[in-house]
Prior knowledge:
29% strand
Amino acid sequence: MSKNVPVTYIDRATGKLCTESVMGNKALNFAYNTLLGRSLWGFLFGTGVLSRLMGAYYDSRLSHNAIKSLLQIPGLNANEAEMPWQNYSSFNDFFTRKLKPDARPVAVGGNILCTPADGRLLVYPEIAPDIPFPVKGAVRSLNELCGTTLPSESYSVAVARLAPIDYHRYHYPCDCVETGFVKKIAGKYHSVNPIAFAKAPDLFVENTRVITLLDSPVFGRFAYLEIGAFGVGSIVNTAKGENHAKMDEKGMFKFGGSTVILVMESDKVCFDSDLVENSSNNLETLVRCGEKIGTGN
């Protein structure tokens, strides 16, 4: 078995370099770092069967006691939740919890782009659509990620990777309007943990994902992607109607770490310099939903 390098990131709130606590670390090591585990990829990640079975269990009252194991992971703040953890009916009920109204302050201003979710963020100011998507050694392109041929120009991309301890509802990063284009691309269900990237660097392109096109008066037309992952019982988009204010809820992920990706025209947005610098050093930055991550050009 190969030895894992610790997963590190910058906590933006403190500026400190932190080591990520990985839920299910032994299982991930087995699946991605052993010959037997990799031989089972077809069963584990090739279909949604196992993820759906896990989702059904975590939706049931039988899973309530499993909340305790999540609470033991450093970094989860149960006091932010609307209710005491004992009041949730199942693991997924707690996992998809709403937060107290003041738990995620929103960066105000129409020209400000907010992070759509809690997560470990990487930003890329300029990506050509037909070159390899530059996340963790991937060799597939932005066109393949989006499932279409994008116009030949450059794009700015933000990748927010959620860990199990995070708040798992995702939001609109700016005032925007639905265009009517929503596309689901069926795929695999790899974990999105960095342990998985070492063996499956194209997992964002290979995993199940939902793509929504949105129009913003400041940031133009952009794509909003929700990426499925191992253990994610479902991607649930809860938003109604066409017009959405910044930080309106768009949806939620059930159990499992997952990812939200924004694909924007590069001449419409300027990412914050600290995020660009950390990303250029291949370091994710821990951000909280509603934080400023960029401004309109």
